[in-house]
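Hey,

The postdoc asked me to send both predictions to you directly instead of through the lab channel. I've kept everything plain text so nothing gets mangled by the mail client. Protein one:
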Amino acid sequence: MINRRQFIQTSSWVAGGLVLSPFLSGCGAGELAFGWVTDIHYAQAPVKWDRYFSESREKLAEAMLLYNDGQMDFVIETGDFKDEEPIPIKENTLQYLRDIEAVFKHFTGPRYHVLGNHDVDSISKTEFQSVIRNTGISPDKTYYSFVQKNWRFIVLDACFRADGVPYDTNNFKWYDTSIPEEQLQWLEMELARSKEPVCVFVHQPLDGEGKLFVNNAEQVRQVLEGSGKVTAVFQGHRHEGDYKVINGIHYITQKAMVDFSGMTNSSYSVVRLSPEGLVTIQGYRRAASRILERGTAAEWVKTV
């Protein structure tokens, strides 16, 4: 176990010499803070592609300790929560899911999940949903929304094939990912009825084209942009991380927690949202720290 001072020393802001530490200063008036992790890929499986699957449980435990100490409003993981062995055994896969959910449950406040492609590689969505819990959300909902401190948060499920069939126990290719029409209509309605500014969470990214991105990402972006209410989209899947601003919306992809060995190679963040729309991301271990101002110009963004 490490103490709070050691946690603070792992922040990429501290490593970069930045004096400001919003974690230490606490939430300002009307500010919201949440913990964000992605691509944990926990399994007792051999190392592959620099993914140290078995180390992810300890890495996540460190993040949960920090989040409890920092009194986050909620925590969220944006997909690929668990993984599996090279030759999958369903009961083992479900046990890895139970084991990593048990660590996630150490956070004492609201907790939320986003479906990733590896979450349903050899199990069904129903089986995944039967193990995890999203606070205040029905277990049958894989896309949903919730409100905290005058912000609306929308969780999308891009684990559908282009033909609209949901991912289910190896019936898909990882690069065939889309948001089907029914979910798009739901998204439009959620945005239309929202009286709050919005942040969106999704596993497969929406800010580009190609195998790593949602097939109909441009269509989804048009819905987000048309609402005039979306401040930021938080994404996983691209393990190296990324950042773009497209038509006034920030698209932040966090580095994967599973990559590389050792606690210093973990990746997790504290995100703060101000009433004025300022997005402050304090990255820990390998995660990037950013201050993202409202607006459309990329030069308004500071990467620390």
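Protein two:
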Amino acid sequence: MTADDLVSLRRDLHRKPEPAWREFYTTARIVDELESRLGDDLAELHVGPEAIAGNHRMAVPDDADLTHWYEQARDAGVDKTVLERLEGGYTGAVAVLERGEGPTVGLRVDIDGLPRRESDALDHAPVAEGFRSEHEGAMHACGHDAHATIGIGVLEAIADDGERLDGERERTERDPHRNAERSEEESRSSSEQGSDGDFSGTLKVFFQPAEEVVGGGKSMAESEHIRDIDALLAVHIGLDHPTGEVVAGIDGFLAVSHLEAEFTGESAHAGGHPEQGRNAVQAMATAVQNLYGIPRHNDGKTRVNAGVVEGGSAANVIPDEARILAEVRGETTELMEYMKGRTRQVVRSAAEMHDCEVSFETGAEAPSATSDEELVSIVADIAGETPGVDRVLERDELGGSEDATFLMRAVQENGGHACYVGVGTDHPGGHHTATFDVDEDSIQHGIDVLAGSLEEISRQQV
């Protein structure tokens, strides 16, 4: 892909952001790009329900919401055959490229947008350049449009290298003495660049849906496609690192769990008979206040947040229903479980204090993970020799949560290695803000670093 192709694809995806499990246009567009650019080079292309373990999807929206986004993608003119395979919110894809004997390596990129409105300020680049979100109330505020583009670019880069090398082998077989000096020179040049482009093995690229609600990673980690992966890279652009900077291995993933608590009391007239009511909002408010008093743990970082609190119907009615949407996090999965247990205890106690009942529903969850040193070292070496990269950090901490950890841990538990790579990009506004955007030059940096690293992993058979 040329630089213009990369920019064009990224901007098309940016115009049509789709939140978790609604990535109908996005998936169909990725499939079209893969088929048109790679065609018969792809050994397999698994789409929608073939790419994920559907019974492990988390935080799936209701049918009416899915239908709205499905029809919107249909109206945008995507391939109806592909779209029909995604019906019901079974989005995402897994592309497989085979290049002879060798390890099976993977790359995970996420593809969903966020349910937030994009800035319409005239100095916001997507406005100035004409690619602002066309889906009002949704935007790519975290760079997943760039991630999907990087995934396609890596596949094409490795496929093109294979075709070039196959052609060289054919010419050498016809004339074994052909340009021996040139071959030696090319070998030296490739060695100096840190990668000779000779990928041998199988590459799988996971175009994962629903990262923003930590709802899609588990469905891919539980699929058959992850079971034979020997080494996995995942990538994120930005993360407060500037263009030209690469983090070879990101750690510090906080395990996360989402929780919904519904309080049930009894309504009554607030002025005439307040004693007859059981105030669900009062129970909810007590719970929210006490959640922030949960003792932190000596073993590491812990977090709790009541992100949505709602209930009641009128000023003169004792409310009989209320709810909290909360999340807990921990530096390890065990610390997250500690916070989850204490959260349930606090909520139950608040309900009992105000003579209400409470029910719980656990939402999406993701574990913690660590990048393996074997892969961190390879990525650092390749990044250090990649044009456009002027600074390499071996390690940094995410300080948040990511469901790529499901795939990382699945590979590691099967005896393989995994690593999460950060590719810097200058981004006005922080992640998840209305003014977030990426420096499009960093897309090529990501492709070069990841393709080179995957080639080196295949040679070293890490």
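Summary for protein two, as requested: The chain is about 40% helix and 20% strand.

Thanks,
C.
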